[in-house]
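ok so i was messing around last nite and threw this chain in just to see what happens. nothing serious, just curious
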Amino acid sequence: VVGRSLGTGVAIQLADLQDFESLQLITPYDSLLEIVRKRFPLVPLRQLMRHHFDSISHCKKVVQSTKVLLAESDDVVPHECSERLMAAWPGPVALQMISGVDHYTIIERWETWHALCEFAREVPHQPPDRTQQHPPSDHTESGVPLPLPAAR
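result:
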């Protein structure tokens, strides 16, 4: 399953409920409500938004192999929103930054599609066993350290 931007919240909720082989998230966020609140601080969004897409609360039971692609110059989903989500992730996450792109152009780059296809080829071709818990990892599959969690 692949989710992009707003669709990453839907993909994470699906991964919380369904078994499938892998999950790939392009420019994911921790909470849609928080992203919108930063843009419109005076609007009572909690009352206006029916779905808050709190990805952190839905990611706790995700067991699928997961890849995250970030846009180097994303001004829609700040990197710290993606980093908070990855810090809460229950298992290993393969993280890749796509250079020279923003939130909108990441999907146009060959590197993005190549990364998606390569990850899909590499994952086991059977849904994971939800009864096994994966210990949290502080590195991507390629050995790159994940960002530190945000201070609370």
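not much to say yet. The chain has six helices and four strands.
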